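Treating backbone geometry as a discrete language has practical consequences that deserve illustration. The amino acid sequence and the backbone structure tokens for this protein are reproduced below.
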Amino acid sequence: MSSAKTLGRLVSVGNTNSTTTIDTYDELGRVTGGRQATGTQSAYIFGYTYNLAGLLTQGTYPSVCTVQYSYDTGDRSSTVSDTAPGSTVTFPHAGTTAAPINYAPHGPLTSMNRGDGLVEA
């Protein structure tokens, strides 16, 4: 597929196991959709959406799950959650939520409450 938005941009990458094709970019050059084919399986469709600040807010993946991303006022990840039809699974482990994610005043990640009750620090 070739369009004005893909001209001069990566449109396909592959190896002996799979090929990923980028089908669409937005006006700012961000990937918004594509597909990945592995072996003889049908291609899996994926897509991405972004907020006005250019941050990834949603990813839709082959298993028909949707990952939602939210950010704090410093544009740092604050929550990541994953939903699939009929169930909710979340990052970093199935059945959990990475919220809250905490940062030091100068920027680096200091801790993340995992949904399994543990805190990564």
